[in-house]
Every structure is written in C-alpha cells, then in structure tokens.
Amino acid sequence: MSNWFTKLQSIGKALMLPIAVLPAAALLLRLGAPDVLNIPFITKAGGAVFDNLALIFSIGIGVGLAKDNNGAAGLAGAIGYLILTSALKTIDETLNMSVLAGIVSGIEAGILYNRYHTTKLPEYLGFFGGRRFVLIVTAAVSIILAAIFGVIWGPCQTFIHAVGEWIIGAGALGTFVYGVLNRLLIPVGLHHILNSFIWFVFGEYTNPVTGAVATGDLNRFFAGDPTAGMFMAGFFPMMMFGMPAVALAMYHAAKPENRAKIGGMLASVAFTAFLTGITEPIEFMFMFLAPALYAVHAVLTGLCLAVTYSFGVLDGFGFSAGFIDYVIDWGLATKPEMILVIGVGVFALYYGIFSWAIRQFDIPTIGRYDEDMPVSSEKVTMSELSEQVLAALGGKENLEEISNCATRLRCTVKDVNKMDLERVKKVNGVRGAFATGNAVQVVIGTNAEHVANEIIAQS
C-alpha cells in the first residue's frame, strides 16, 4: 500500500510541471482578448498552449516522473502521445482521449525512462543504447497501448462522459462533493489527480466558430464556454477570504506576548493565499493538530463551491483562485462581483468557527503555547533551511529521492528510523511535515523549489 501511495504521489507531483505553464498561457489569453487589450496575436500565443495541452502533459509528466528529470523522458512522452493518438484515429475516428492521452503517454514515458535509460546494447548497436533506447521502447509500447485502447476506449469514453455529465448535471451537489474531496486529498498530495479529471476531462464544448473541441472545466472556461467555471468559482471565496480569516483567528488566539513574533509570518501566508491562492502553508498549520477542524474546512470548501454555483457565479483560473486570477479573468466570468459579497460572509464564517474551535478545544495553534514557538524568531536563510531539513531527514546518505511541487518537498528516505519527523516540523521555515512509509512531504511554501535544489546540490 505504501508503495502504491508513493507512486500516486509521484504522479501528482509530475502533474504540477505541465500545470505550471497554465498561468502564463491564461495571462496571454486574457491580455490579448477583445475586452482587455484587443491584441489577437497575444491571445493566439496563449491559446496555443491550451490547444496543445495533451502534448504538453505528455512531455511534462514524462520529465516529472524521470528520476533525473531528463529531457529524453519528455521527448519519449511526446513520441508516445503522437503514436497513440494517430493510431487510435486509424482504428476508430470517434475515439478521443483528449488530455488523458497525454497523461497516459507521460506516465508511460516516465516509467520506461527510469527502467531503461541505462540499458547497454551490444557494441554494434551501442548508438541505440541508454536514453536513445527509451525512445525506441516507448514507440513500441505506444503501438501496443494504441491497440489496447482501440478496443477498450470506446466503452471507457462512454463511461467517463456519463460520469462527467452526472457531476456537471448534479449542480450544487456535484460542486460540493468535488470541493470536499479536493481539500481532503491535500494532505496526501493526491488532489492534482482529481483536479486533472475535473479541469481537463469532464464536460465537452465545441467552439461554434472554429469547431475546436475543449474538455474539462478549466479548458472549457478559457475556450469561451459560457457554462464552464462551476468547479473553480467557489475556490475564490475560500482562498481569498476564508484562509486569511483562519490566519487572523490564529493570531487572536495566540498569547498576547507571542503575537508580535508570529504576526509577520501569519500576515505573509494570509497575503499569499489572498493574492495567489496558495493555501497549503496555512492549512498545514492546523491540518494535523486538529484533523476534525480540517474536515470542517473541507466541508466549508464544498459549501463555498455549492453556494457560488447556486448564485449563478462562474469563474476560472489558470493557476489558482487568488486575486491575480480573479482580476485577469473578470471579463470571462459570470457575476464575478458576487464572489466579493460571498467572500465577506465566508470570512466571517471561517473566523467565527476557527476562533471558537481553537479556544473551545484548546487546539495548540502557533503562539498558543511558548513551547510550540520557533526556537529562534529570526528568519533563517535559504541555505540554513535546506541544511536543517536535510539533517532532520537523516542526512544526504539517507535521502533516496527528492523533488518538489508548488509548496512542498516530496522525499523518499532509505531508512525511516534515521529520520526525525518532529525535528523536521520544528525547523524554522517549515510549515508542516508528514510521512507515509518512506515517502515524506515537507511543506515549505513558495520557496519549495529553491530548497529542493539546494538539498540536491548538497546531496
């Protein structure tokens, strides 16, 4: 089970690489739109990413899954995708795997790269060994996959379409269930897998002018589907208003003499949530201290999605539901002003519930007890943070693999007994940490990539 969990984590991490290009693409798409700057070539530049999203996923996931993030895995992913989709069309032109074809090809390429990139062939075939061999194997496996999917994808396509139609047709209930599951999967880092289906697979929209087909809530939103955005709009009130309210509740629940020490940090993570929609640094502050309270947060997130949908609010984002995306996508949204109105109520609800719960159940959130305060209130440098995290993980000898997503390190350690998870959590600059078997996640914040790179350089 632990092995499967680690594999799912690695897929979730790999999904973040192609998703990372979406903010830039969405920005170009919106800036060039007629209701903004009205510069068609800028819109086309952004649209090029969304038009080729499946290919980008095949490349990005391949690189993300490769142990050394080598570009050969990305090239293998692209080759796999082109062979798979072309062969499928030959078998049955009605088959359309959309972004899933890119995800499957990327996973295939990453797995094959890790297994065969060091393969040695006889001397007379030596040129085709190593990473070049990965490309050959990927092409061969893709042909086999095309034959398999050519038989099974028809029923699968019908089933996925039916599931997507049910979720979309379920209205407020569908958005509520998705919102709850989205937050519940955050602790184990598997929410990206759920999101990939909701954002890029479920639902279909055909552009009446160009005839281009877009699938998934995010894809359809930026393609101009007037019904898209129901699975994204509700995150804006939660991220822009709910999470800052949680930070304020923690601040007021802390001892008066500790508030000056924690105020700057809480203000920073609250502003990050409001501006960019990155909420994990706040969520990890109470996620494991009070799992029941986190479950309440998940339910509140589902309610945010259900309420915004019930009010007819539709909105979307290229990265996350922060103020930046809110402003950029105002022209595409339906009733975006209602998000501010709902947000005020969400702020009050979150602040009231968290303030009451922290005091009522004596939850040891930051600043409540002196022993939970950081050893030093001085801000550590990036190098110091990296060194301390590495040491707490058992040193470079104990580190088998390390990578990162937007806000957290994803590590695999050789011996869990050589790692001190409590010491990891107490490192100044770490927002939270947990382990499942040998798989460890350390929440850093937006500097996670820099910390990961420094640890890799040290190890």
UniProtKB/TrEMBL annotation:
Keyword Cell division on this protein? no
Q: What subcellular compartments does it reside in?
A: Cell membrane
- Matching SUPFAM superfamilies, A to Z? Glucose permease domain IIB
What molecular function does GO assign, one term? protein-N(PI)-phosphohistidine-sugar phosphotransferase activity
Q: Per the database record, which ranges form the PTS EIIC type-1 domain? A: 2-370
Q: How does it sit in the membrane?
A: Multi-pass membrane protein
Cross-referenced NCBIfam families:
EIIB_glc, PTS-II-BC-nag
Signal sequence coordinates:
none
* Protein name (database record): PTS system, N-acetylglucosamine-specific IIC component
Specify the PTS EIIB type-1 domain's residue ranges.
383-459
Print the keywords alphabetically.
Cell membrane, Kinase, Membrane, Phosphotransferase system, Sugar transport, Transferase, Transmembrane, Transmembrane helix, Transport
- The lineage's top-level taxon is Bacteria
Whether Ion transport counts among this entry's keywords is: no
A Pfam family that the UniProt record links to this protein: PTS_EIIB
Q: List the active site.
A: 405
Main subcellular location: membrane
Q: Which residues cross the membrane?
A: 48-65, 72-88, 94-113, 133-153, 159-177, 228-250, 262-278, 284-306, 313-332, 338-358
Q: What is any one GO biological process for this UniProt entry? A: phosphoenolpyruvate-dependent sugar phosphotransferase system
Query: Native species of this protein?
Result: Selenomonas ruminantium
Coiled-coil spans are none
Q: Which GO terms describe its cellular component?
A: organelle inner membrane; plasma membrane
